[in-house]
Methyltransferase
Amino acid sequence: MFWLFIGFVIFQRLIELIIAKRNEAWVKSLGAVEVGQSHYPYMVMIHGLFFVVMMAEVLAFHRTLSPVWPLLVIFFVITQIGRIWIIFTLGKYWNTKILILPNAKLVKRGLYRYIRHPNYLIVTLEFIIIPCMYQAYFTAILFSLLNVAILSVRIPMEEAALARLTEYDEIFEGKRRLIPVMKKE
């Protein structure tokens, strides 16, 4: 079961990289500006090592399925629905890199109605949910910390570039970065 699950998640990430590469070529052909090239290899390394370390922890310490796995599966499915929703919401603009089309009209629908960076929230949750499903708590803690470190570089860099090249500040003023706040109507 573990190998089937991990294989599915890795396959999903590879498909996403293919989509991102195709989208990158398209948006760059329109004049998109790339920022954050210096930290991107570290981000790729963190995401790749996540699977390696989790597999090593599960194998070395004979980790088994968590007693609360049904709940974790529900959370995992919710994150995957969110991930797919984000990819479809952004369409050809979705990418793993920071690629900004100057003066582009920013997306304000989908999960972007509630928070600035829903994709980073999904990844943050996955770094907890996926390893906890197999009681790989070392992996969950380590990669949650590494994710906080890389996002503390990436998010300010992305927001500064968006503010410089688009109407980001006006559109997303008052919206939280990662934790949604539902407004009372």
Residues 137-165 form the longest helix (29 residues).
